[in-house]
Design goal:
Order of helices and strands: HEEEEEEHEEHEHEEEEEEEH
Number of helices: 5
Number of strands: 16
Strand content: over 45%
Helix content: 10-25%
Length: about 350
């Protein structure tokens, strides 16, 4: 999906959502319940390197072999924790002969103090291959020829985001983790900051390379929770953001010493959007989501780097009363940290 198409989609969706009628919201909280969820989602993460002018740009698309991942979530009070991984036994995650071996791990925490939403995460991805081999080598044939692989290319990210819901009668939690349920349709503008430290490292021909990026961005999104039935909701959202990308790069030379450090700064543009459909009862819940994420920045005059992530997600969950030991320990923790 091109950046132009994403931009048009975001603009149109924001216009539609901005005109939606907002009713007085009634929110039901499940904070006193423990909620467990199992998720299955596609994880199509790729980096697109473009060289040349827009009409004749030459693209190289780096992707990971794992296309489907599972995750388990545990929620109680204002805390939500999720761990994600990509099992090799799932079809599409084990084409190692042609695409190489990829690994994926994502650990994520969310906190919902009042109208704030705080997210912290760690993500590690290793093992990439060039997806568009046919564009680079016209004689290349899928199924006969292997993809060009980068098994030692590793990307690690530590980051987070901080958002604030402007409409006090709108529940962002009901969309993110289903820790609440909104009984009447409502929407809200949500400004948020995102930030991360990302390390790119690789080993080729016994030579190591490493790049560290610090990213920070300011974003504005609009979320709408449309309750179409007593237990069913549809929630579209879209956001647009701008930020800075600060990079530090250093190669290892043939003699084992490190090369000179190169520091660069870029202006980055980011688009996100998606759609959530859910069914909710006081005990059982299930639903699906479709999301996209894309950011881009210009390395040079005719060189662009894009990070695209498009995925669909299916989830099923169950709520139950907390064990006494969990409630007692949380109450003790809350006495020391009142914000919890």
């Amino acid at each position: 999906m091109s950046l132009k198409a994403l931009f048009l989609f975001v603009c149109c969706l924001c216009v539609i959502l901005g005109k939606a009628q907002v009713d007085t919201a009634i929110i039901k909280s499940y904070a006193d319940q423990v909620m467990i969820r199992a998720n299955l989602d596609t994880n199509i993460e790729s980096y697109i390197f473009s060289e040349g002018d827009a009409k004749n740009a030459k693209q190289t698309i780096l992707s990971i072999n794992n296309k489907t991942k599972t995750s388990l979530s545990l929620d109680y009070r204002i805390i939500s924790a999720t761990i994600s991984f990509a099992p090799r036994f799932i079809p599409g995650n084990n084409d190692n002969a042609n695409k190489g071996n990829s690994s994926y791990t994502d650990l994520r925490f969310r906190f919902f103090p009042k109208r704030f939403t705080q997210t912290l995460y760690y993500k590690r991805v290793k093992g990439f291959y060039i997806e568009n081999m046919k564009d680079l080598l016209p004689e290349w044939q899928e199924g006969r020829d292997p993809y060009l692989q980068f098994p030692n290319l590793k990307i690690q990210s530590f980051g987070g985001s901080t958002s604030y819901t402007l409409n006090k009668n709108f529940s962002l939690n009901s969309i993110y983790t289903q820790g609440e349920w909104q009984k009447k349709s409502s929407g809200s503008w949500v400004p948020f900051l995102d930030y991360d430290r990302t390390t790119f490292s690789n080993v080729e021909d016994n030579q190591k390379s490493k790049e560290i990026q610090y990213n920070i961005g300011a974003n504005m999104g609009y979320f709408y929770n449309w309750v179409i039935a007593k237990k069913v909701n549809i929630s579209p959202y879209a956001s647009l953001g701008f930020g800075g990308k600060f990079s530090s790069y250093r190669d290892s030379l043939e003699d084992g010493t490190k090369g000179a450090k190169e520091n660069t700064q870029y202006l980055a543009v980011k688009f996100t959007g998606g759609l959530h459909v859910g069914y909710n009862t006081d005990r059982f819940l299930f639903g699906g989501k479709m999301n996209f994420y894309a950011d881009a920045y210009n390395e040079e005059k005719n060189s662009t780097v894009e990070n695209n992530n498009i995925y669909g997600l299916l989830y099923i969950g169950y709520r139950f009363a907390p064990p006494k030991v969990v409630k007692r320990n949380y109450d003790k923790l809350q006495e020391k940290i009142p914000i919890l």
